[in-house]
Amino acid sequence: MAEYFNVPAIEFEGPQSRNPLAFKHYNPEELVGGKSMAEHLRFASPYWHTMRGTGADPFGAGTMEMPWDDGSDSEANALKRLDVFFEFLNKCKIDYYCWHDRDIAPELATIPETNAILDKVVDRLEELQKEHNKKLLWGTACLFVHPRYGQGAATSPFLDVYARAAGQIRKAMECTKRLGGEGYVFWGGREGYATLINTNVKKELDHLAAMLHMAVDYKKEIGFDGPFYIEPKPQEPTTHQYDSDSAACLNFLREYGLMEHFKLNLETNHATLAGHTMQHELRIAADAGALGSVDANDGTANCGWDTDEFPTDLYLTTSVMLEVLRAGGFTTGGLNFDAKRRRDSFTTEDLFHAHIAGMDAFARGLKIANAIIEDGRLDDFVKARYSSWDSDLGRKIEAGECSLAELEAYALERGEPEISSGRQEMLESLINQFI
Ligand code: XUL
Ligand code: CO
């Protein structure tokens, strides 16, 4: 097979290494809390950024070197990219990948032609996955690039657009199932509104739920047993996206009877756009039993755009891994780098530096989070903080068996309550001890 990257396979060399093309912390086989790092972290690379991201922005053309790509929509070009991608995954020791249907194969003039080229690409992906022992973390349908979806797909005012989206979802699910995908994502990039002046919100949400119910029916029909994930994001490209954050998604899923079929795929830069920390989004999902998978990236906090940067901040990766470990670890999910290099990092080698940076940051985050949990002081503090509830009365309230009058009588007897310090700064300092 031709080699496309003038970069050796990336090896673990330890924290003292001065080699930029080596892992300093990610050591796939190393055990952390009884499980290997590879099993904990389940890294995935997103086809859209890694293979199709040109570095273009609203002010200028792409900058990325892609010497293998002739820029055409030909089958040969689509197939060649797959070889490049698998060389990259191998050299970077990444076991999983994710795609949108339209990243791996182009949309052609008609639906049958489009599906035919997609099938050819999926045939080849099937071979490559077997040959290189790689797995599909999740697939998804791109329902936001084509102009027909400009006013929504499952929330389009136009029934013909809705039907087109339905067919595209069905096909993308079929391909995901063929490739043994562990999950399937719905990110509603255009499922929201530009303005309420022209929008029937109730109708659009009902239609979105109907689409997801049809997807559940199809999932059962073809025996796809992975979870569905909704990926929240509050805006961009829409002014308001219906799946704005974890809590809004959970509310929608409960309202429409979809909870048992869905988990959430949470992305840092989407959390920050929603005015939350990533830890908040993960916690809300985990508490509802819906922490599915992570789109691991970061943004520039004061910028207000979804900049999809590689995650290199250890406080971020530690907080993510704390939530993931406390939720029992990933099952079907993983850490998908929904991240792109900066325009300035345009060489093919930068793809490696970017992923190494993200993988090492998460390896450290994992080790730090595991050490914090094993140390126990943080969790013990939180447990102690709520210990007054470990009483007969506390249990009675939590079981819903108490009345306001009963509590009033109790309060009368007790007098002014005693409270203790939340010790935020002490605990922040404790976490710093591990970082
Ligand atoms: C867009 C985004 C998407 C989804 C998949 O902000 O995150 O790439 O992850 O459609
Ligand atoms: Co994403």
What does this structure look like?
- By secondary structure, the protein is α/β, with parallel strands linked by helices.
- It has two domains: 32-375, Alpha-Beta Barrel (TIM Barrel); 380-434, no CATH class.
- It contains 16 helices and 14 strands.
- The protein has helices spanning 37-41, 47-50, 75-91, 101-104, 111-132, 159-178, 201-222, 246-255, 268-273, 278-287, 314-326, 348-375, 377-385, 392-398, 404-414, 424-434; strands at residues 11-12, 22-23, 31-32, 35-36, 43-46, 96-100, 135-140, 183-186, 192-193, 228-230, 240-241, 262-267, 291-295, 335-336.
- The strands form four sheets. Strands 5-6-7-8-10-12-13-14 form an eight-stranded parallel barrel. Strands 1-2 form a two-stranded parallel ribbon.
- It is globular and about 80 Å long.
- D-xylulose binds next to loops.
Q: Give start-end ranges of low-pLDDT stretches.
A: none
Along the chain, the helix and strand elements come as EEEEHEHHEHHEHEEHEEHEHHEHEHHHHH
Q: How big a fraction of the residues is strand?
A: 5-15%
CATH superfamily of the largest domain: Divalent-metal-dependent TIM barrel enzymes
Question: What small molecules are bound in this structure?
Answer: D-xylulose, cobalt (II) ion
- Distance between the ends: 42 Å
Class derived from helix and strand content = alpha/beta
Shape: globular
Total of DSSP H or I helical runs spanning 4+ residues: 16
- Largest sheet entry: 8 strands, parallel, barrel
> CATH top level of the largest domain?
Alpha Beta
Numbering strands along the chain, what is their spatial order in the largest sheet? 5-6-7-8-10-12-13-14
**Rg over alpha carbons:** 23 Å
Helicity range:
40-55%
The residue-averaged pLDDT reads: 98
